Sequence to fold (690 residues):
Amino acid sequence: MYARELVRPITELKGVGPRLAESFHRMEVFTWFDLISHLPRTYEDRQARKPFSSGYDGTPVLTVMEVIAHQYIRYRKGRALKVIVRDATGPAALLCFGRNFLQNILIPGKQFYFYGRGSVNYGELQFSSFETAPWTADEPPPPEFSHILPVYPLAGSLTQKIVRRAVAQLLRSSVRYLEDELPRYLADAHGLIAKRDALRLVHFPKSQEDIERSRRTLAFEELFYLHLIIRRRALKRSRLRRNPRSYSTALQKEMIKQLPFTLTSGQIRSLQEITSDLGRERPMARLIQGDVGSGKTLVALLASLPVIEAGRQAAFMVPTELLAKQHAVSSADHFESMGIRIALLHGGLKQSERQLLLASLKQGDIDMVIGTHALFSQDVEFKDLALVIIDEQHRFGVMQRNALHHKGEVPDMLLMTATPIPRTLAMTVFGDLDVSTIDTMPPGRKPVITHLASEASRSRVYQAVRSEFERGHQAYFVYPRIEQKEGSKLRDAESMFSYLSNEVFPGITGGLIHSQLPLETKESVMDAFRKGAVVYLAATSVIEVGVDVPNATCMVIEHAERFGLSALHQLRGRVGRGSGQAYAFLIYSQELTDSGKQRLQVMKQTSDGFVIAEEDMKIRGPGDLTGIQQSGFLRLSFSDLVEHLDILKETLSAVQTILSEDPGLLTPAHQVFLNVLEKAPPFQEELIDS
Ligand code: ADP
Ligand code: MG
Fold:
């Protein structure tokens, strides 16, 4: 099924020319495989006849009708054909706007299969869109009038008919490549059908049961391989060995003593877990999971000290340059007095500066380098990279993580995330990592008070922010867009910045910040904000990640309904970092849906990232998971982590059983798996070998 043959472009299907291909591409359907995994959004059951008499309440009609007469009604500058028809239960009218040619097809006295959804006007059942086909007594009805039909997501010039035909053609020509990839005993034990049948039936089912069984089979296989890959990786990793090193924690202890506060119990525990992993024979692959503001960054910095004390190097990778800069500043505060040499590698460096930095890194004159993915450019070499720290890890693909991983001689790896993964999914998403959780907040933090406000009460929000300004505090204003876009009613950071500074807060200095500004501009705005010279920021969600200004007490988010809950949670985490009471104002537009309101209510009710993640999962449902699917971490074709939670558990335990019964990883007895994995990976390559 994942055979090479299926990597052919869809233009190699009959009837798919450049124009249709372009429409398919818009839905990310490029290859035969993409098309086969372009699953129906829903199905239309056209098995049972539904006569005209049952169509008055909007139920789709499926019947055999007889054409009675032609009439014409005024339409635009001319006239439109109106065909009077009837079936055994009564009459109906077909309005053929722009389709007068039907007068030559729907000829009075003839009989046709009919499908359509009607509406009632002056007591008359009318159809303006419908499908017909000639009826003959001695032939079976065509599939459009007798089968369950797939209903696909569409784009551009695609129609259901075109996609159905393309898929049917593809299934015919590729069925020989489709092989079962699960061994029989597993398929039997879990009630799965053959892969070939599953793919045929998921597109063209004969019954509701077909739909369920085919979907289940496809999801099972996919999740089974996902878990197999992850668990194998975990096993492999657990067997990785290198020369152990013993580290001193003298420097670490010294820095902890110098901190103006004491570590929380969660921080202490995590730091101990990490420190005892460092330098072991088995390389560390550990994730620190902790809510925004729980002090993960500090833990990571402390964790790097034993490595640095031993004269080795650490690399600290963050998703944005802004954050890199901020980490460089704050770690310099902590580190420089101890003689630790920190460098910031960013895209804005001049060629000569960059060369100099790279040379020092290679010579070992730099202890810790901080940067974005620029850190894994080809030309970045280390003298002795011993620890890789990756902040906000969900922002990076596994591929990127690895690139850095390979720069040292199996360095220790420390990942951090503030995107809480629902517990039910942790084994899947982080299955190959050890996890430390910081479940405590630094003392004295008061929960952020969250208000939901409609657009109409925006001025009251401004009033509240103004009184915070009077207390010497600062604020963020976040918008979903950078600049105005024609035809869009969304507020944007640029126009709102000028509105705020001219109309709302004249005399108070604000700053504008978004991803498209040059780095120097962003830096100087952030600097000024950190120092308090800039009192508020009008921003996009660039500030979502990691920005730390304790004096900022207000977070105003416009069009809050357009942000995912976990993004809102991250944004809200930017305030409430100091000792003052902090506020979040979530401004929503008037046309909020019920589920939209429900989501925002969750933000008001809790500040626990795990609860928010679970709620997000429940409310937003399939296909829209916090930070996981969003970030492209998992690209699944047939399964959905929410919808198929049961299958997720089933496959995990099946995989665990196989791997534990077979401690030699997958021996020849399981060659079937290996073949599939090695020759034709079912997932993005990046997921395979970490
Ligand atoms: P995270 O990365 O988890 O979002 P940070 O490491 O940025 O959190 O920490 C947030 C703020 O809290 C920083 O200003 C940091 O100096 C401070 N902080 C960290 N640990 C403590 C602690 N134990 N007590 C008080 N403040 C702390
Ligand atoms: Mg952080």
The pocket of magnesium ion (ligand 2) is lined by residues 296-297, 391, 546 (CB under 6 Å). Confidence is low (pLDDT under 50) at residues 397-401, 621-633, 663-690. Residues 208-239 form the longest helix (32 residues).
